[in-house]
Amino acid sequence: MMNNEQSDIKRYGITRRWADVVVFGSVAYFVEVPDDPQLSAEDQFHQVLAQVDSRLELVGSDRKRLLQVMIYLPDPSDLLLFNQIWDQWVPQGFPPSRACVHASLAAPGYRVELVITAAVGSD
Question: pLDDT tens for residues 95-108?
Fold first, then answer.
């Protein structure tokens, strides 16, 4: 973790262009794309959700504390498969607010991008 001069904002994984996670108060904000865009769509979906789990753990959160997820899929025909994997991943009774958008992504191999907002800290 690295903090800048604003001590109430915490940034993890800082690069010149972005931070892997930004936490303000009790809310974390982050974006995930699959680490390996060469994988099949199914494998990318599993991989990106595992990455979300890791980021949530980093900031003291978990799937039950997801507030909102924005899903970007470049191929709308992937939605059925994504939803099947998603439904197994999201804990029953704890779904976040969610939107799914058909959009081109920055790199042609990516099959999904997620924008995450999650509560941090204890219940």
Answer: 999 999 999 998 88
Residue 12's closest CA among 24, 72, 3, 50? Answer: 3
- Taking only the tens place, the pLDDT of each residue in 55-94 is 999 999 999 999 999 999 999 999 999 999 999 999 999 9
> pLDDT category, 118, cuts 50, 70, 90?
very high
Whether 100 contacts 45, CB under 8 Å: no
Exposed / middle / buried, residue 92 (Cβ in 10 Å: 0-12, 13-18, 19+): exposed
* CA 49 from centre of chain: 7
Q: What whole-number distance in Å separates Cα of residue 93 and Cα of residue 81?
A: 21
CATH topology classification for 2-119: 60s Ribosomal Protein L30; Chain: A; (3.30.1330)
Q: Which two tokens stand for residue 55?
A: 């980021």
Task: Tell me the torsion sign for CA atoms 71, 46, 17, 103.
Answer: negative
